[in-house]
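Data card: per-record layout.
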Amino acid sequence: MAAEEYDYDLFTIGAGSGGVRASRVAAAHGAKVAIAEEFRVGGTCVIRGCVPKKMLVYGAHFAEDLKDAQNFGWSTENATFDWIKLRDNVLKDVDRLEGAYTDTLENHDVIVFRERAEITGAHQVTLASGKTVTAKYILVATGARPQIPEVKGSEHAITSNEAFHLDKVPERIIIAGGGYIANEFAGIFNEFGSKVTIVNRGDQLLRSYDEALRDRLLQISLMKGIEFKFNTVFEYIEPTDDGRFKVKLSDCDEEIVDKVMFATGRMPNTEGLGLDNVGVEIGDKGQIVVDPYSKTNIDHIYAVGDVTDRVQLTPIAIREGQAFADAVFGGMEPVAVDHSCIPSAVFSHPPIAAVGMTEGEAKNKLGSVKVYQSDFRPMKNVLAGRNERSLFKMVCDGETGKIVGIHMIAPEAAEMMQAAAIAVKAGLTKEDFDATTAIHPTMAEELVLMR
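The structure for this 451-residue chain is written out next.
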């Protein structure tokens, strides 16, 4: 089929962050583009992920801020919290963002099909309505979804998807998982007054983060009243007559809770896309297998974002979508997105942020390392009477002094980490940080004062 015989130059399946960026950029390069989305434009991050979750995190922080404000002279005794008001305001802003993403596509003349799409042949896509179209290139950007463990009664649990739509804050909630989603929602619900228990089948939280930060978060979370059960699994979940749930955990008695939430990882959305119709290779975790340039084993089919299970982060999906569109439609030199040294954050209470290697990883890879730390109580916490300490950690190559990792748990850690990550990515040394004048008094000055 000649190029001019295709209905579109690009057909994108999935209008999340990666799919929207790729489609918009391809259209800006002059391509004729269509995109299909079966749920809502914006994808997980915008609709039911990092954006609305961060809004809940902001709302939760006010619980502590209002208490702390009293030692700063403010009277807050009559403060009240209205979950419905917060929930509805967050969902209203999600609507606004969906509109903005849709406008971006339409302003670039991208055709938006609000229905499911399936690959039904070479260069061919069939929509749920029965309409069949052809495209020179097909991009799959369908993201991932919460993974539900095989537990008797698991259908009674919620996931992060449903957490944004609750009619009330649960008085008692069990959250399964030890990753960032579990710890973030544990902090949110705890600050809103829930009795929270995190149940983890393993023996540690946040396995990819530095051990010192994990331990500090556990200590602080326990102080805040969050309960943890490690090396524990669910045996069953049963509904009760009053709308709550009876939960049986291994080595524990039955208990009654208002909600059970699974935050046990995410799995790529590859089912029902027709990938097997054209022989697209699927990995052992259900992910689409791609090369460094996001191309599958089928030359005209590409995939970006969480559906490839390379790095499940919105900025990575956006970078991959941009690189794909620039190379395929912009005539630019193909670029393999660098998946190393990626900064990340956990919006727990307090938040964690990190970039580069942990101390353990650095020792295993480099052998000789030097570690610098600052363990301090932020000025705001001192006056507030909050006994909560922050920790900064810098890991350096023992031979060259090059910084290979920075890790911190502190209020606004993620905001500080963004600039620090640039320094690590650029290969700066401890001496470069030492030579930089501190901004005093700030928490960030500890980055250049560590010894």
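Known properties of this structure: The chain has a mean pLDDT of 96. The longest helix spans residues 83-107.

See the next section for split statistics.
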